[in-house]
UniProtKB/TrEMBL annotation:
The keyword Phosphoprotein does not apply. Residues 96-159 form the Flagellar hook protein FlgE/F/G-like D1 domain. One of its GO terms (biological process) is bacterial-type flagellum-dependent swarming motility. This is Flagellar basal-body rod protein FlgG. It comes from Methylorubrum extorquens DSM 13060. One of its GO terms (cellular component) is bacterial-type flagellum basal body, distal rod.
Length: 263
């Protein structure tokens, strides 16, 4: 019976939907996390009678056809790359992006990754790194004699040195953006890498056209809305239960038919 297969695809789709929702809720407090959304499509149809087909020699046509669907499939788990709220941290090396753009991070294998997580620290050499020790790209090194460090809205990094009245320039933040940022591949650790779907990175300075600016001592929180996720979870649970009831009903109908043939 077709209903069994169609309902089974619906249950599988809602199970995956719950997995995505649970991941969003789990990352509710993850810095720079972008929530995922599941997109569905219906499966192929078997056209038993096509719309517009002839019904007589007098050129009468069917106004509506007879088509049987075969269920649902999951097409993507796209990320909503909207801005998350900013939270004040009071840490000198915490930086949030307001607007478009991602930080550039140099991975140990030489690749460049991208992130909205601006929770940076210094390594033993004074280089600005991520929480996992990956270098900011381009690199910024802070002298160990610096008394304070400022990061401007346009990404200029300056330090106040003992005995100097004018601040010393240390480096410049660069941001990257993509034509299709939804096409970026997430590799964990709050990092993305470019793909053929995202297109190549477009780099620029914070505050320039098409790029957001920076805010020191702030971090961008996840763009996950707890109320929305719980509502989606309830809806997914109800859809799963309805599909399971279809399986039960179809099984009972098949059982009845089988008993009729036995009789």
């Amino acid at each position: 019976m077709r209903a069994l297969y169609a309902a089974a695809t619906g249950m599988a789709a809602q199970e995956l939907n719950v997995q995505v929702i649970s991941n969003n809720i789990a990352n509710l407090r993850t810095t720079g996390y972008k929530r995922q959304q599941v997109h569905f499509q219906d499966l192929l149809y078997q056209n038993l009678r096509r719309s517009g087909s002839s019904t007589s020699d007098q050129n009468t046509m069917l106004p509506a056809g007879l088509a049987l669907g075969s269920g649902v499939k999951t097409t993507s788990t796209a990320r909503a790359m909207s801005q998350g709220p900013l939270a004040q941290t009071e840490k000198d090396y915490d930086v949030a992006i307001r607007g478009e753009g991602l930080f550039r991070v140099r991975l140990p294998d030489g690749r460049t990754a991208y992130s909205r997580d601006g929770s940076f620290d210094l390594d033993a050499q004074g280089q600005m790194v991520t929480r996992d020790g990956y270098l900011l790209d381009p690199g910024v090194t802070v002298p160990n004699t610096a008394t304070s460090v400022t990061i401007s809205a346009t990404g200029a990094v300056q330090a106040t040195m003992p005995g100097q009245t004018a601040p010393q320039a240390l480096g410049q933040f660069q941001l990257a953006r993509f034509v299709n940022k939804v096409g970026l591949e997430s590799i964990g650790d709050n990092l993305f890498v470019e793909t053929a779907a995202s297109g190549p990175a477009i780099t620029g300075l914070p505050g320039s056209e098409g790029f957001g600016n920076l805010q020191q001592r702030y971090l961008e929180e996840a763009n996950v809305n707890a109320v929305t996720e719980i509502s989606s979870l309830i809806a997914a649970q109800r859809a799963y239960e309805m599909n399971s009831k279809v399986v039960t009903a179809a099984d009972q109908m098949l059982s009845t038919t089988s008993q009729m043939f036995r009789g």
